[in-house]
Amino acid sequence: MGESSNLIGLGMPLDRCPNLILVGNTAKGRGVFARGPIPARTIIERCPVLVLDPQENTDHVSQTNIYDYTYNWLLGTCQTQTQALPLGLGSLFNHSNHPRRCNVGWTRNIDPETRLVQGMGVQQGHDSITYVTLRAVEIGEELCISYGPKERLTFVDVEEQDVDRARTEPDEEHAMTVLGSVTLGLDDD
User: Fold this and answer.
1) What's the distance, Cα to Cα, between the start and end of the chain in Å?
2) Residues 157-189 pLDDT 10s
């Protein structure tokens, strides 16, 4: 009991909502979905992050697919910009800027104890991300976060493509409704 019980007070609580399922074959790739109803303001997950050494991030990680799963991050109290990799579901939430589909918000929890140690890389603290539902989520609904405005995205937004396609492709039913309401101003003369 001794040493283990002393460590409990030093640990970071990890929370995860039980009503989640990972689906691998969506239009966006893998995605997190609700397998049961989830009330508004529920903590979906509090997950630790791996804060990346800024130089290693620039030299190596930014050249790999892992970079696509990282978040912009500040290194402790020194305000050095780097990236952090969530060690949980954080890397698996898909993007949405649609007001109804973006149903999860997130908060960075930056630990001032995390710091860059010369010659040793990043000394990890208890940095984490907390994900919370912004509204009630229904069974079968995908949980999405916003990655930011479309100008900052580094990928083609599937939802934006669908909106663009809807603007350019004719809607036959709508066209028939519009045509059916057109009257011609023909004189009977």
Assistant:
1) 103
2) 667 665 454 444 444 444 444 334 444 444 554
The burial class, CB within 10 Å (0-12 / 13-18 / 19+), for 82 is buried
CB atoms within 10 A of CB 56: 14
- List of residues 6+ apart from 61 with CB closer than 8 A: 52, 67, 70, 83
Q: Which residues of 91-121 are buried (b: 16+ CB within 10 A; e: fewer)?
A: bbbbbbbeeeebbbebeeebbeebbbeeeee
> Cα–Cα distance between 107 and 181 in angstroms, integer?
51
pLDDT at position 9 over 60: yes
The token pair that represents 74 in the structure block = 């500040």
